[in-house]
Here is the input.
Amino acid sequence: MRKVKVDDLVGNEILALPIVSDNDIVLIHADVVLTSDLITRVRNIGLYEIYIRDDKVEEKKVDILPKSNVPEHIYKVEETMEDSKVVVKSVLEKHIYKHNKDLWQIGQEAEKIINSVLEEPEVVTNITEIRNVSTDMYTHCLNVCSLSTIMALRLKMSEKQVRNVSIGAILHDIGLRYVNVPYIDITEKEMNKKDSLEYRNHTVYGYSSIQDESWISDTSKEIILMHHERIDGTGYPFGQTGDKLKLEVKLVSICDEFDSLISGIGNKKLKIYEAIEFLKINSGVKFDAAITNKLLESVAAFPVGITVITDKGEKGVVVRQNKDYTDRPVIRMTFHSDGTPYEENVEKNLMTELTMFIIDTE
Here is the structure.
């Protein structure tokens, strides 16, 4: 490995050592390929140098950045998802309706995600910083799978239920392979009537394509078919109400909606705090209140590394979360309200700066 300046990164470098926050949460994992977005995030965190992999340089022990006394244990969920995406995309891209002898491989990837989470129980309480925003249907399915699996464990579901949730979630949008309408960064209401009807059919197409797969449980199949049902009966394809929906279906539907809102899969893309507000408004209305509230307890409205704008017109970068108060983080101030930069390192904790509020993000 070798040390490089963040300003010299061009993209596609491989991070050699994980980047860790002050409260020991892994912000970016080792072996992740650095995209332009990740490089910006590294810069926003305030790092000037990082270690990247270099096969030509002899490996030697170096302290993890930015702290040297963090635990050796490193989260593997995101790495597992990156590996799984290759398999999931390969299998689904060649999936012929009802005929794919390799579909079972996706089930194996769901098992890997379950195992990653079970091997790292601290992930279940630290899910605020491990999410990658979906860029396509495959990443979306993996995000929903990992989030649903973690939430199933937080809800203390049985081993069988967790497995059904994970497999149903990773395959929940398989039906999108069989619709030919635009569904990125657009709501169903914005689609014309024909496209909206076709998009809604993806749940039925998905179920039909896997209904004969004996290795997929009936509950997982119900997740694929009914993840767009809502407890008030306004969902589809059947307009089922909450009393007729299994807990596993309700769980995946909420995780799917959250990731869809921030990624723009079948929705107009929102910022994370806007998606959280949407779930708050619809908790107990369209979504099961207990599950929604459990998710809202876990997700940070303003993740570490994001640039925020305060009600005073100032800008800052989120550097730490406050436990149990995910909408009141610690901010390292970067710009005054008049646009001039802060020359000193000033941190403001919104748990003590009670008159300061975040009104937007960049």
User: Anything to note?
Assistant: The first strand starts at residue 2 and ends at 5. The beta strands are 2-5, 19-20, 26-28, 49-52, 307-310, 315-322, 325-335, 347-349, 358-361. The chain is about 40% helix and 10% strand. The CA atoms of residues 67 and 199 lie 48 Å apart.
